[in-house]
Amino acid sequence: MTTSPLPFDSIENNFLRVDYLTTVGPRIIGLYAKQVDLELLVQTPDIHWPTPHGEYYLYGGHRVWKAPEDSFYNCPEDHVTVIVEKDRVRLQSPIDASELQKEISFCLDENRVLLTHQITWHGQEPIELAPWTITQLPLGGVAILPQSNITAGSNPTRSLAVWPYASIYDPRLELHDDLILVYGSAHQKYFKAGSYNPFGWAAYLLNKVLFVKRFPVSDFRALPDMGSNVETFVWDAYLELETLGQLTLLNPSEAVSFEETWEVIPGDYSITYETANTITKQLLSKSN
Question: 20 to 30 A Cα–Cα from 100, which one of 46, 74, 121, 285?
Fold first, then answer.
């Protein structure tokens, strides 16, 4: 179990503990699964880079960003307001240098975390953006991105978006007809891929726990990044499991929200295609 070098607070129940930063953010910095004694989020206090508005520190854990990606909107997270409302925590940033204001609120429900993300635009002219949530997970597992199981018709049913710095031959990428796997293996070379997911869930499988993200599904024609609503990024420090909402035109002072649910399922898993395929079938049967 790790602790943050920055001030943080927590909420917890019999299954989970969620840690969040109290001086910068909005940032969830820890997700501790009590039944398997495992920390599911990665902290990255030493990773930082320059932006047009000052040095940006990654911190790690879980954050909300704006898509499509644009370095102008990556601003230092210097402050945060923490509001505790009964069993729900709300983390609200000030208006940053790019005129965006971000918020994450969350509560616990047994082995689940229920999250709402919000981005408010405070600029002078309308802007089109999509909410983009990014969760940094430990290496050693495999990301599961289910694909459409439609096998008839004349229209395309599956997609794969690959970033320019990534190779389609990267050994961490494994393609199957019904799912995409991305292994959380350390490598100094970045890899990122995305796809359109019609099922509303993606997962990360570790030896002792299955982490599932559930999210609303938008029309692929309204999504950024070549119609992607799920993406994963991996290098030598962590794997990111990312979800995206639809592109929305915001007028000044308007906001867009994006909800997702995390589910933590303990178990004795193997990091193989066979296990991932079995899990995919089980999750799809529950959603039907």
Answer: 46
For 115-140, what is each residue's pLDDT tens digit? 999 999 999 999 999 999 999 999 99
Boundaries of domain holding 228: 8-287
* Model pLDDT, residue 205: 98
Q: Which residue has the tokens 């520190």?
A: 57
Indicate the Cα dihedral angle 114, 283, 286, 263, nearest 10°: -20
User: Is residue 1 domain-resident?
Assistant: no
Per the structure, the count of domains in the chain is: 1
CATH number of the domain residue 240 falls in = 2.70.98.10
Tell whether 206 is covered by a domain: yes
Structural domain contains residue 2: no
- Residue 241 within any structural domain of the chain: yes
Distance CA 114, CA 93 (A): 19
Residue that is written with structure tokens 């953010």 in the block: 25
Q: Give the pLDDT of residue 153.
A: 83
pLDDT in tens, 61-100: 999 999 999 999 999 998 999 999 989 999 999 999 999 9
Rg of the chain over Cα atoms, rounded to whole angstroms, equals: 18
